[in-house]
From TrEMBL:
Location(s), subcellular: Lipid droplet
Record bears the keyword Hydrolase: yes
Gene Ontology biological-process entries: lipid storage
Protein name in UniProt: Lipid droplet-associated hydrolase
Source species of the chain: Bursaphelenchus okinawaensis
Length: 304
C-alpha cells in the first residue's frame, strides 16, 4: 500500500512544495530523491514514483521537489511572503535550492549515508552537481539521469525551435505577466478543462500539474530558467565530467528526443563508459511522465 502527500516547507527562506510517495509495507527501505525537469512541477512525477514503489521492494520513500516559483503559491503563503511570487530563479539557484532541501528535509529521513538521486532532463544536470556536493558531505550517491540535458541544449532541434520564444518570455516578464494575467482568475477546474486536450490520456495528477502552469508568475519563471539553461548548458565542463566519471551513474537516453539527440548518448558513452549509458527501446518521449511513467519506472527499478 502506498500514498502520496504534498507538503509546503520554507527552504532557504523560500516556500517550496514537494511530494512524498511512500509505502507503509517497507518503512526501512531506501530513500529516493527525484529532481524534475523544467517546468518543474512535482505532480508530474506522482504516478512515476508510485510505479517505482510497486515494482521495487527496496524503496520506502520518494521525495520529489518542485522548482522554486514554478508552482502557484497558495493564497495563505502569498500573504505571509508577498515578495516571493515576483522573484525569478536561475539554474544555479535551483541547484542550491535542491541542496538546501536535501539537508533540511531528506537527510533526517536517511538511516545511513546512502541515497539515490533521479534527475529528469535538466534535473539530471542539477542531480549531477548535487551528487558532487553530497559526496563531499560524506554521502554515497547513486545518480540516475533520465533523458539528461547535460550539453549543448541550444544546438538541439528543440533548442532551435523553442529558443526565440523562451528568450522572449525571459526577456519581457512584465509583458508576459500582463498578457497572461487572466489565468490568475481562472478556477483550477477551468484550467484543468483547458489543458486536458493537451494531455489526453494522462493521469489526473498530470492534468493538475499542467493546469498549474496556467499562471503568469509560473510562466515567467519557467521561461527565465529555460533561457538560462539554453545559455549556460554548452560544452560539458570539466567539473561536471569529473562527477559523471566517478561511478554510481547511469544515464538513460531516448532515440528520438528533440532535447537530447542520440549522438549525445554515443559521446557520453566515451566519457563514462558504454555500460552506464542506456538507450531506450520502448519509444518513450522526453516528457515520459505524461503517459509513459510505468514503462520508464520498469527501466529505472533495476538501476536502484
Amino acid at each position: 500500500m502506498s500514498r502520496t502527500i504534498c507538503e509546503w516547507a520554507k527552504i532557504g527562506g523560500r516556500w517550496t512544495r514537494y511530494s512524498v510517495t511512500e509505502t507503509l509495507d517497507n518503512p526501512k527501505g531506501e530513500v529516493l530523491f527525484v529532481i524534475p525537469g523544467n517546468p518543474g512541477n512535482d505532480l508530474f512525477y506522482t504516478r512515476f514514483c508510485e510505479y517505482l514503489l510497486v515494482k521495487s521492494d527496496k524503496i520506502s520513500r520518494i521525495f520529489t521537489i518542485a522548482h522554486l516559483n514554478h508552482i502557484p503559491l497558495p493564497a495563505g503563503l502569498k500573504r505571509l511572503d508577498p515578495v516571493q511570487e515576483k522573484e525569478r530563479y536561475k539554474l544555479s539557484q535551483q541547484v542550491d535550492h535542491s541542496y538546501d532541501f536535501f539537508g533540511q528535509i531528506i537527510a533526517e529521513q536517511l538511516s545511513g549515508k546512502k541515497v539515490t538521486v533521479i534527475g529528469h532532463s535538466i534535473g539530471a544536470y542539477i542531480g549531477t552537481v548535487l551528487k558532487g556536493r553530497l559526496e563531499r558531505d560524506g554521502y554515497k550517491v547513486n545518480l540516475i539521469g533520465l533523458f539528461p540535458t547535460l550539453v549543448d541544449m541550444a544546438s538541439t532541434p528543440a533548442g532551435h525551435k523553442m529558443g526565440r520564444l523562451i528568450s522572449f518570455v525571459s526577456g519581457h516578464p512584465k509583458l508576459v505577466r500582463f498578457a497572461t494575467w487572466i489565468f490568475k482568475w481562472f478556477p483550477i477546474e477551468v484550467s484543468r478543462f483547458l489543458v486536458r486536450p493537451w494531455v489526453r490520456g494522462a493521469p489526473e495528477e498530470v492534468v493538475q500539474a499542467a493546469a498549474e502552469l496556467l499562471d503568469s508568475s509560473v510562466i515567467t519563471n519557467v521561461g527565465y530558467m529555460a533561457d538560462d539553461e539554453l545559455t549556460n548548458i554548452n560544452e560539458l565542463n570539466p567539473k561536471l565530467e569529473a562527477e559523471l566519471s566517478k561511478g554510481n551513474v547511469h544515464l538513460y537516453y531516448g532515440t528520438t528526443d528533440p532535447w537530447v539527440p542520440l549522438i549525445y548518448a554515443h559521446e557520453m558513452s566515451k566519457i563514462i563508459g558504454a555500460d552506464r549509458v542506456i538507450i531506450d527501446d520502448t519509444g518513450a518521449e522526453h516528457a515520459f511522465v505524461v503517459r509513459q511513467s510505468e514503462v520508464i519506472a520498469s527501466k529505472v527499478e533495476v538501476l536502484i
